[in-house]
Target: DUF1819 domain-containing protein
Amino acid sequence: MPVLETLKLIELKKQGLSDKDIETEVLINNYLQKVRPSTIKRVFGEFKKRLSYMDKDFIDLITELPFESKKHLLFANILETYPIMLEFMTEVVSVKLENYDFILYVSDFFKFLNSKEGASIQSLSENTRRKVKQVTFKILEQAGIIDSVKNRKIIKPLLNDNIIRYYSNKKEILKGLLMNENEILANIG
Model:
């Protein structure tokens, strides 16, 4: 879900609306800019999953951050919500960065996906695998982790200190945000 749409839904949550009221607002006002109600409901369902990881401190923090940092915080939220994305970041993207290999290839994604032994991943059709790849790269682009879906040049984010503090007890998330062990130790001990 694009950043601006996500921020709008967070604002509705901050106003005290229930998930059901937010869903109604989304359907009435088409905040997600989708045509079909079924698509709106599916996308909103994903947002509800992510919302469960957003506590009051998260919501307060995201309203205070500059836009680029909001993207990083929302990406951290995705890493919390979807462990497979966190694994991809720590097992593939951060390793490439450590090895001064700054291009993320499509083959890197498929090698990662093929290395996962879960029955749900192994049973994915080729079409579904392509769609997952497409969505993954789009998320990385929107978060500012890669320059574009086409070029896929890895960009190490410059994280806001408040994001680092917020995730100080979740070092895996910081690693997923491409901080290395030394940077984590230097920032939070």
In short: Residues 66-189 form one domain. DSSP finds twelve helices and no strands in the chain.
